[in-house]
Amino acid sequence: METAPPPPVTTRGRRVRRRPVVPRAEGSATVFTVLRRMRAPLITLIVIFFVSVLGLSLIPGVDAEGQPARLSLFDAFYVMSYTATTIGFGEIPFAFSYAQRMWTTATIYLTVVGWAYAIGSLLALVQDRAFRQALALRHVSRKVTRLREPFLLVAGYGQAGENLGASLDALGRRFTVVDISETRIDALEIATYRGDVPGIVGDARDPHVLGVAGLGHPWCEGVLALTGDDEANLAVTMAAALLRPELPVVSRTTSPMVAERMAGFGSPTVVNPFDRFGDHLRLALRTPASYQLMTWLESGPGAELTPRGTAPAPGRWVVCGYGRFGRHFAADLRAEGLEVTTVDPSPEEEPTIVGDAADLDVIRSADLAGAVGLVAGTDNDTTNLSLIAEARRINPGLFVAARQNQPADTALFAAMEVDALLVPTEVVAHDAYARLSTPLLWRFLRELPGQSDEWSAGVVDRLLDACGTHLEALWKVRLTAEDAPALHPRLARGGFRLADLLRDPADRDRTLLAVPLLVLRRGEALLTPDGDLELEPGDELLFAGRAAVHREVEATLFIDGVADYLVTGHRVPSSWIWRKLSRSTPAADAPAAP
């Protein structure tokens, strides 16, 4: 059965036809590499074998009666076949003459030389990096081609890609990986993921490499450009926009200029970790409980709830390191109406104090004793750690925000117990997870900054009751005829509340422990709705709770009669036969139990 071509995609008012992404012929490349590298050894073996067979057939011998005789070409070929392969069956069809034995002896040593040459060349080929890459490319291409479920294409398997991969795997989401480092792909192979993750060593800027990783696959549902190279991320964004314009793209960059160039290709989601951290910290200064809730939900299932901080009093901040990050952060603080003192050794960046932040005299000149907050934002972790130690010695009550550059220093920053820590790779991973794992979660996080701190604290308390200190599953429910076939007819009659959906389908008097975070109805978001909300067909709901609770809610969605029981308390046989035998009909709507 032929499939129809994909429909044209509209981008900024233009109709853009989807272009096929055709990877290189990986199988043919592997075969040709073997033939090219083994050409000389194979020709050598063939020549040795040909000369040996021809010579043996021309040398005269004697038959069983002592009459002169020569071996036919077939007999000579047969004898040399088992002789050259060191099997050895003897002298047939009759005993050889001394001349034939001398020739056979010479050809034995000659074939040994030929085999040694061929085997050595084969071992060198197996160890050749280009051949191994071609073989791995073909293997990955086969695995990607066989995928028959939605997956994401992740370009870059550094710390951000690894953190995001772990969160996606916890949700049961499939993904493929492209990275230029062979060591990172080797680490991917031994990672304890639930599903097989195809990983390819290659430059993500090459569209053919992206094609092998599944950019042109019909089940590809999104692209994430998470490499540490802004130009590579820009190239991935361009390739996805031009070849698969209908796919969502999340791209990482710290350069406003590169972000602007990315925006020229479709509508990618550009994540700047410096901007995002500034937004998060501004939220932490205004509403600490909202900041705590946001970071917990963005971290994904299994994340532990971090302690809630306290916002510092209004006052002056000291920002050490006035590079790209420092400028972003100083601008965010000034937007909050705060006074900022900046320290940087580069005078062209126009810092308040020119000098090395590692110099104690420079730090003392910043008057940390009269400040309320410090940002240790240099690109050197040792400098940042020493800054924190000196600042707390001068002013123990200082609010400290720090930038961690190397993953290996995680334990050191954890021991310092900073109030706000920026790990750019983690910010990117959490932001990408929130956007792609569940769109409803991203909508919830967008609405969160507009809520009060008391409201956020209440949501955190409810999540603690439902999940404990470690976040459990986040799952959505779509109340459509396809996703809720048993509940949808009941919704059409009205009177089914959110509290009814959170009743145990086996015992309606027991309430399921789950937190409804959001209801999306006709594009309008209702945050943490109460149980009296009457559900309507087409509603989309986001819940947080244990996986067992999710399965019990699914019983209401898919098993006939459960919804009526939850509302009325009367059990209705789900089978048509049992309803006929019991002469029962769905009970009329009764007032919902409290």
TrEMBL record:
It is found in: Cell membrane. The lineage of its organism: Bacteria, Bacillati, Actinomycetota, Actinomycetes, Geodermatophilales. Residues 153-273, 318-424 form the RCK N-terminal domain. It comes from Geodermatophilus nigrescens. Its main location: membrane. It is a multi-pass membrane protein. The chain crosses the membrane at residues 42-59, 79-99, 106-126. One of its GO terms (biological process) is potassium ion transport. GO terms for cellular component: plasma membrane. This is Trk K+ transport system, NAD-binding component. InterPro entries: K_chnl_dom, NAD(P)-bd_dom_sf, RCK_N, Trk_Ktr_HKT_K-transport. Gene3D superfamilies: 1.10.287.70, NAD(P)-binding Rossmann-like Domain. Residues 46-126 form the Potassium channel domain. It comes from the Bacteria. Keywords: Membrane, Transmembrane, Transmembrane helix.
